[in-house]
Amino acid sequence: MLLHTSNLSIGGRSWRFEIAASPTYVTTHSEDYMRFILIACLLLTSFVIGFCLLSSGREHLLEILVHERSTEITLLHEQTTALENQALLAKIFHNIPGMVFQFKLFPDGHASLPLVSEGIGDLYELSADQVGEDASTLFARIHPDDYNQVVVSLQESARSEQPLQLEYRVLLPEKGLRWLSGLSRPEKFDDGSTVWYGFQSDITERKFAQKLAYETGEHLRLVLTAATGISVITTDVNGLITIFNPGAEQMLGYVATDMIGKQVPALFHLPEEVEQRGLELTLELGWPVSGFSIFVEKSLETGQEIREWTYVCKNGSRLLVSLCVTPIRNANHELEGFLGIATDISESKEYQDSIMLAKEQAEHFLQLKSQFIASMSHEIRTPMAAVIGFSQLALVNEMPDKIRLYLENINIASTSLLSILNDILDFSKLEVGRTIIEQQPFQLNALLDTLDKIFSISAQQQGLKFNLVLASNIPNNLIGDKLRLQQVLTNLLGNAIKFTTQGSVSLNITLQQIDLTQVRLLFCVTDTGIGISAEDQKKLFQPFSQVDGSITRRFGGTGLGLAISHKLMELMGSEFSLISNPELGSSFSFELVLGLSTSTISRQSHFETQGLVTIDQNLSGTRVLVVEDNLLIQQVVRGFLDPSGIIVTIANDGQEALVLLEQNEFDGVLMDIHMPIMNGFEATKQIRRLPQFAHLPVIALTAGVTVEEREQCLATGMNDFIPKPIDSKQLLMTLTQWLKPLS
Ligand code: ADP
């Protein structure tokens, strides 16, 4: 500590200033002020010395004054300057930030403050006059908890004559609690009193900042210690470890003291993994990335990087960790190092893996279930084709009414069994997400024709009015999945007719919006039937849910129709809304966005052609090769074709078909798909390879009814397909379309 001392005595009063120049105590500002004071003191001292000299030789001076007028002027000038300097010194003294003081302690414990700067107002909310000869008012401001410490320190400083450095709290009437810091130097007098010369300043802000910094540091230390299971490692910019928390010790088995100052990657990372990542980054960034940069380069680019690494523990065991690296920057945004927080994810990885496995297994089982249902339905479909076919064939003949009724019932029952089968197959496909929504051109008129054909007769038979109303401003050529839309509408109309005993059932289609490429249509199926209670409406779209078991038994059904329609709606980006009142009826509606088609439809589907083609066309004498392994189906097909005079030849599999085609002339082929020895797809491919059969019509007979299966038939070179169970009318119409009648 450096103390500049300056003594002065004015009006018989002796002043002594001690100015501390300790770098730990005096702030930069204070240094400037001190320098000022020092210069001012020196000036003042020289003035006082001059003044004293001048006083002592007054007579001699008068002589000089008489003789030397010029000297008198000079002296007057000097006096004026000295007075000005004194005023300046007082100004400086009072304007020093903080409080400059002279404090006196008498042997009887009485204390006074003979000299104090105006800073006392700031530091103690007191004036110099309020303290003056009695410093007890000032002492009363000291915080009770710090009071003793202040008194003891004063006594100690007085005894040892050592400088007094104090920090204590004061309680002020206005500002409340403040922290003061002071430094002073004692001087002992013969009368036993001690005088301290020094100054004090308010350090409350610094104190709070220190407290905050301390607390933050403490909290951080607590967090680092408490974070068991989490490794927190910080490094400097070069990767030398600066913090290695207990979590890291626990995770890696190393002791912090051994790790501080060491390089990170080499120690607990897998060299090959680091090298691999280095290569990746080098390729990505286009410059060689190696060493510590491998761990931090991405975090510098993006502010943070989280990735999985393998940690190698001290005992050689390995851990899978998720490491989050963040650059540490100071207040000026300069890089100071890196923070790496790693969590052990070995277990959660195992857990995730097990969940993934369970999910995969569940999906696999769902697939298996779907496959099982698909193959079962295929297997059931074939014998059912026989039941439906034979009942149809039999009904053509004359028979007693009773037998006719039985046969009709067999036909109706097997047809409805088939629709149940279709529902189950459909639902299982929707469940495993295998249903694809087509975007193909179609004609809305044709779709309505089909619905009309399906429902108008049954509605009429029930005495219901049946209306299909299409707004005239709706374009006819649209793009979408016509079959799926038809399926939904069939379900809604079927239900409406099923659950309505009197009144009407209608489908209204209105235009909601149109632009150059698409339309938004509102489809609304309304009935005046039994209605659905609010309670029942909630479970309506759940699979296998039927509102009322007794009603269902009365009306039949699987409870799958609406669940399927609901899922199809979802796939088409829409949903149902339902207004229904028991006894009054129901109204199911949905909106659908469909594309606008400019192309004309090239290949018409069966339903669209149904009304157009007459089966009266003469097919008699045409030769058809029926490739089918199932004896029953062979008979059904023959039974359907014989009456039209078509000459039927049977092949039991694809290979036999190829042989027969080589030896005979045929006008067309009806080809089953699933057959032993050579299936229908393979046989068709082989037929198409032979130039003479390039234009031979090959029509699939397939139990597969999905769009994909249909597409597959066409892709292998078949011209069309007829779904099983075979409908005699549809079979003949399709043949009429493809076979050239004999003239
Ligand atoms: P289902 O094959 O049993 O008709 P759906 O899923 O199509 O299966 O319908 C489920 C149930 O919803 C029906 O059993 C019936 O209780 C009720 N429901 C559907 N549509 C109507 C309607 N228009 N009027 C009254 N009830 C209906």
Structural account:
- By secondary structure, this protein is of the alpha+beta class.
- The chain folds into 6 domains: 2-95, no CATH class; 99-209, PAS domain (Beta-Lactamase, 2-Layer Sandwich); 227-344, PAS domain (Beta-Lactamase, 2-Layer Sandwich), CATH 3.30.450.20; 350-428, Orthogonal Bundle (Helix Hairpins), CATH 1.10.287; 436-596, Histidine kinase-like ATPase, C-terminal domain (Heat Shock Protein 90, 2-Layer Sandwich), CATH 3.30.565; 623-738, Response regulator (Rossmann fold), CATH 3.40.50.
- 48% of the residues lie in helices and 24% in strands.
- Strands 13, 14, 15, 16, 17, 18 and 19 form a 7-stranded mixed β-sheet that branches. A 5-stranded antiparallel β-sheet has the order 4-3-7-6-5, with helices on both faces.
- Helix 1 packs antiparallel against helix 3 and helix 17 (482-498) runs antiparallel to helix 20.
- Adenosine-5'-diphosphate binds next to helix 17, helix 19 and helix 20.
Summarize the structure.
This protein is an alpha+beta fold.
